[in-house]
Amino acid sequence: NRYLSVQERQAAVVLFRTLHWATQQVDLGERKVKVLVNEMKKKIRAEPLAHLDYVSIVDPNDLKPILRLNRTALLALAVFIGKTRLIDNTILLPEKSSSVSKESVL
């Protein structure tokens, strides 16, 4: 992202790492949304240059929050790195025990 300094670009990796971690946890069998979201928040807050806007796991059709991963879900997050707001997301596929990643930093 051209709006980020070199240091901020390094800090922005926390988004990808957090999404990747969550995907791995789902692949390993984690189905509790609260557990995943709380740990993702901790990971993002551990990066000093990151300021969390939101982390959510929702139904991909109606964007309503879900409590348990028992079907396809959308994991979305937004984080400020400096003054730049970055958003990213991935599709979680717990029913296949394998998640397909669709990252896109805007």
Number of distinct beta strands: 3
What's the overall geometry? elongated
Oligomer: single chain
Let me know the largest β-sheet: 3 strands, antiparallel
The helix/strand series, from N terminus to C terminus, equals HHEEE
The averaged pLDDT comes out at 91
Distance between the ends: 8 Å
* CA radius of gyration: 13 Å
How are the strands of the biggest sheet laid out side by side? 1-2-3
Uncertain stretches: 98-106
With helices defined by DSSP (H or I, 4 residues minimum), what is the helix count? 2
Q: DSSP strand (E) fraction?
A: 25-35%
Relative helix content = 25-40%
SSE-based structural type: alpha+beta
Write up what this structure looks like.
Strands 1-2-3 form a 3-stranded antiparallel β-sheet, with helices on one face. Mean pLDDT is 91; it is low at 98-106. The longest helix has 22 residues, at 6-27. It is of the alpha+beta class. It has 2 helices and 3 strands; from the N terminus they run ααβββ. Helices cover 33% and strands 25% of the residues. The protein is elongated. Helix 1 runs antiparallel to helix 2.
